[in-house]
Amino acid sequence: MLVLEDVHKVYGKGKDKKVEALKGINLKVEKGEIFGVVGFSGAGKSTLIRCVNLLERPTSGKVLINDVNLLELSPKELRKERRKIGMIFQQYNLLHSKTIFKNVAMPLILEGRPKAEIRKKVTELLTFVGLEDRMDHYPEQLSGGQKQRVGIARALATDPDILLCDEATSALDPNTTEAVLDLLRKVRDELGITILMITHEMNVIRDVCDKVAVIEHGKIVEQGPVIDVFTEPKTKIARSFIRTVLNDKIPASVRKLIDESSKENPHGIYRILFKGASTSTPLISNTAKKFDVDLNVLHGMVTELQGIPFGNLIVEFKGPKEEMDKAIQYINDHNALIKEVDQDGI
Ligand SMILES: Nc1ncnc2c1ncn2[C@@H]1O[C@H](COP(=O)(O)OP(=O)(O)OP(=O)(O)O)[C@@H](O)[C@H]1O
C-alpha cells in the first residue's frame, strides 16, 4: 500500500522565487489498485509522482510504502526500498545505443546479477509484454507503443510492488494507448502490482483506473472510485474533465429547447443519472404510468464505466407540483440520481 500524508513541495527560495508545487497531498493507494491523478498543466502532477520515489524530495510530509516512511531511511535503506518502485515515462527513456534486451536487463546488470539469471528474467519479461521476438532490435526500430512496452518490461525487472506511470500514453495514438492500457491492467491482475499514474487524459482514467484524484494548484480537490467521481462529480474542475470524455454536455439546440420550456415550466427540467442495474429498469415509463406527470426526454446517452452501464438523461417534467414531487421522490428511491438542471446545464 502506498500512502502520501500531508506532502508539501516547495521549489526555490525567497518570496519571489518560491513555488509551492504541492500543498498538503493526502492519498492512499491500496495494493493491486490502479490509481490515477488527473490535472491541468502545472497542477503538480509530475512533482507528485516524482515525490513518491524521491526523485524529488518532499519539503515535508510522509511517503509510506507498506508503512515504511521513505523520508526517514538512510541512503542504503532507500536504495533497497526504491527497488520496489518501478517507473515508466512519457518519452520512454530508453538507451538508444543498447538493444531491447540490454535496456530491460539494465537494472539487473547494475545490481550485478548473474548472466544466466538476467537472461531468464529478461526473456520472461519480454514475453510478458509480447516483444520476445524483438530482443536484438534497437529502440529506433520500434513503434511508440512497443517502446513503452519495453519501458514497462524494464520497470518490472526488479519485481516492484508499485509502478509509477508518468503520462505513459500521452505520446501515443488511441489504438496504441488502448494496447498499453491493456498491458497495465495485465500488470495489475497477473502480478498484483499497485499502479499510480498521472495523466491529463480523462479517457485513460475512465478506461483503466479504479480510483481517481483530481489535482488543482497543488491540492487534491476531489478523489474517489472512478464510477463515483464520474457519475457525481463535486467540483467544477472534475466536471470539466469528465465532460471531455462523457460527452454529456447539452447540445446548443437542446439547450434552447430547455430555455424555452423553463419559461413556461420553471423547475421542470431534470438530469437523471442511472448507474448499474437501474439502467435496465423502465424507470421513466413506470414513473409516467404511476403519477399524473408527462415526461419528455430532451437528451440522453448511455455509456460504460469500469464495465458498469451509466445513463444520463435530461427530462422535462410537466404536471401538478404535488405529482411532480412524488415522481421525483419515486425516481430517487429507485437508485437513480435526479437533480434540477441549472443555468449551466449541470
Ligand atoms: N524544478 C522546478 N523548479 C521550480 N519550479 C518547478 C520545478 N518543477 C516544477 N515546478 C513548478 O511547480 C508547479 C507544478 O509543476 P509540475 O511539473 O509538477 O506540474 P504538472 O501538473 O506535472 O504539469 P505538466 O502537465 O505541464 O507537466 C509549476 O508551477 C511548475 O512551474
Automatic annotation (TrEMBL):
<feature type="domain" description="ABC transporter">
    <location>
        <begin position="2"/>
        <end position="242"/>
    </location>
</feature>
<keyword id="KW-0813">Transport</keyword>
<dbReference type="Pfam" id="PF09383">
    <property type="entry name" value="NIL"/>
</dbReference>
<dbReference type="InterPro" id="IPR041701">
    <property type="entry name" value="MetN_ABC"/>
</dbReference>
<keyword id="KW-0067">ATP-binding</keyword>
<dbReference type="InterPro" id="IPR003439">
    <property type="entry name" value="ABC_transporter-like_ATP-bd"/>
</dbReference>
<dbReference type="GO" id="GO:0006865">
    <property type="term" value="P:amino acid transport"/>
</dbReference>
<dbReference type="GO" id="GO:0098796">
    <property type="term" value="C:membrane protein complex"/>
</dbReference>
<keyword id="KW-1003">Cell membrane</keyword>
<dbReference type="GO" id="GO:0022857">
    <property type="term" value="F:transmembrane transporter activity"/>
</dbReference>
<keyword id="KW-1278">Translocase</keyword>
<keyword id="KW-0472">Membrane</keyword>
<comment type="similarity">
    <text>Belongs to the ABC transporter superfamily.</text>
</comment>
<dbReference type="GO" id="GO:0005524">
    <property type="term" value="F:ATP binding"/>
</dbReference>
<protein>
    <submittedName>
        <fullName>Methionine ABC transporter ATP-binding protein</fullName>
    </submittedName>
</protein>
<dbReference type="InterPro" id="IPR027417">
    <property type="entry name" value="P-loop_NTPase"/>
</dbReference>
<dbReference type="InterPro" id="IPR017871">
    <property type="entry name" value="ABC_transporter-like_CS"/>
</dbReference>
<dbReference type="GO" id="GO:0016887">
    <property type="term" value="F:ATP hydrolysis activity"/>
</dbReference>
<dbReference type="InterPro" id="IPR050086">
    <property type="entry name" value="MetN_ABC_transporter-like"/>
</dbReference>
<dbReference type="InterPro" id="IPR045865">
    <property type="entry name" value="ACT-like_dom_sf"/>
</dbReference>
<keyword id="KW-0029">Amino-acid transport</keyword>
<dbReference type="Pfam" id="PF00005">
    <property type="entry name" value="ABC_tran"/>
</dbReference>
<dbReference type="InterPro" id="IPR003593">
    <property type="entry name" value="AAA+_ATPase"/>
</dbReference>
<dbReference type="InterPro" id="IPR018449">
    <property type="entry name" value="NIL_domain"/>
</dbReference>
<keyword id="KW-0547">Nucleotide-binding</keyword>
